[in-house]
Amino acid sequence: MAETFALFALECAVEQVADRYRNELQEQIEDERRHISVFSEWRGLELREINRIRRTREDYVWFTLLLVNELTGYCQFQMLSSLVETEAQRDEVDRICKDEEKHIDRLIRWLFPVKGSSRAVVPREIVLRFERELPQRMQQFMPREELAPLRGAIAAQVSILLRWVLDEVLAPH
Fold first, then answer.
1. Can you list the alpha helix ranges (DSSP code H) found in the chain?
2. What is the pTM of this model?
3. Residue 114's pLDDT band (boundaries 50, 70, 90)?
4. What per-residue confidence (pLDDT) applies to 105?
5. Looking at domain 2-169, which of 1.10.10, 3.30.70, 1.20.1260, 3.10.20 is its CATH number?
6. 3-state SS assignment for residue 161
7. Cβ distance 142 to 150 under 8 Å?
8. Helix (H, G, I), strand (E, B), or coil: what is residue 117?
């Protein structure tokens, strides 16, 4: 489900960002489609339709939204890698983590021009709001009560990365 949301956000973003970003975002879209396929095949799940509200945003706002999603996914997949049942599944998750690392690096690179500028205010607000909502977001994607310790561990890791984004990528003057 989380990867489906990420795919939708990417599909919206690629329609709105400057041309110079589109090829790499299109590559990222293909990665997300592959991730969705891997996870749905494991459990024989069909993809559910999600509420698709399209909004117009500036490039750097899209990059911020995509970045927080990628950071969260990365932390979840790191934990998942240690929980999967087979070596083949672990290899798939590790490959997905490598994709996420590439996506994160790209988005950070694209956000660096915002650092220290007045445009950093909105991305900082997005990151702070995302961090505040982290417990609810973790509950949404891992609702079973026995997963509470795992949710807490993942949220803690995501929070550390979000703080790094605030301090290093989106730092004020």
1. 2-16, 19-43, 59-83, 87-111, 121-132, 134-141, 148-164
2. 0.89
3. very high
4. 97
5. 1.20.1260
6. helix
7. yes
8. coil
